[in-house]
Design goal:
195 residues, mainly alpha, 0% strand, disordered N terminus
C-alpha cells in the first residue's frame, strides 16, 4: 500500500513531462482536463454537504507524499488509467444517472472518456514492454480496493442523495490532489531542466 503514493506522484511526473516522457503522444491539456473534472464535480452539487455530516466517511484515498523515483513508467500509466476508469465506472451507472443532473453527468463522463482515450495508447505501448502483470500489481489493486469501498458505501447507504454527495466530494478531492500535485511536479521538473 505504501507504493501507491509513490506511483501517484510518478504518474503525475510522467504524464506532464515536457515532450511526453512516456514515449507516446501526451495531450498537452491533461491538467486542463483534470481541472475540468473538478469543476464539473463542483457544479454537480445538488444538496448542501452540511446536511450530510452524519454520512461522512474516510475512504482513505492514498495521498502522494513520496517522490516516486523508484516507479516504472508503465506502473504510473496503469495507476492513472485505473483511477480514471474506476471514476468513469462509478458515475456510469443507473444509480448515478438518477442522482445527478444529466447534462453535467454527461459532460463529466465525456471528459473522463477523453482522458482515458489519451492514456489508452500509452498504456498499450508500456504494457507491451513490461507485461500485463503490471496492471495487477499492488498499486493498481489498492486503487481498485479504494473504489470498491466507495461502491460498497453507496450500496450500504442505498444510493441516497447524501451518500452520492459524500462520494462526489471524495472524488473531487482525489482529482484536486492529483491536479495540484501535477502542477507542483510540473514546476519542479521545469526547475530541474533549466540550466
Amino acid at each position: 500500500m505504501a507504493l501507491l503514493p509513490s506511483l501517484l506522484l510518478a504518474l503525475v511526473v510522467f504524464s506532464c513531462g515536457p515532450g511526453g516522457s512516456l514515449g507516446c503522444d501526451r495531450p498537452p491539456n491533461h491538467v486542463l482536463l483534470s481541472r475540468e473534472n473538478v469543476e464539473l464535480l463542483r457544479r454537480m452539487s445538488r444538496i448542501s454537504s452540511s446536511l450530510c455530516l452524519e454520512d461522512r466517511k474516510d475512504f482513505r484515498f492514498p495521498r502522494a507524499t513520496e517522490d516516486g523515483s523508484e516507479v516504472r513508467e508503465a506502473q504510473a500509466i496503469s495507476v492513472l488509467h485505473e483511477m480514471l476508469q474506476q471514476t468513469f465506472n462509478l458515475f456510469f451507472t443507473e444509480h448515478s444517472a438518477a442522482a445527478w443532473n444529466s447534462t453535467l453527468l454527461d459532460q463529466l463522463l465525456q471528459a473522463l472518456h477523453r482522458q482515458l482515450e489519451a492514456l489508452d495508447t500509452c498504456l498499450v505501448q508500456e504494457m507491451g514492454k513490461e507485461g500485463s502483470a503490471l496492471a495487477m500489481q499492488g498499486p493498481t489493486l489498492a486503487l481498485k480496493r479504494y473504489f470498491q469501498g466507495i461502491r460498497l458505501y453507496l450500496k450500504e447507504k442505498r444510493y441516497s442523495d447524501c451518500a452520492w454527495e459524500v462520494v462526489r466530494l471524495e472524488v473531487m478531492r482525489a482529482f484536486s490532489s492529483t491536479r495540484l500535485l501535477l502542477e507542483r511536479l510540473r514546476n519542479k521538473n521545469r526547475d530541474v531542466e533549466s540550466p
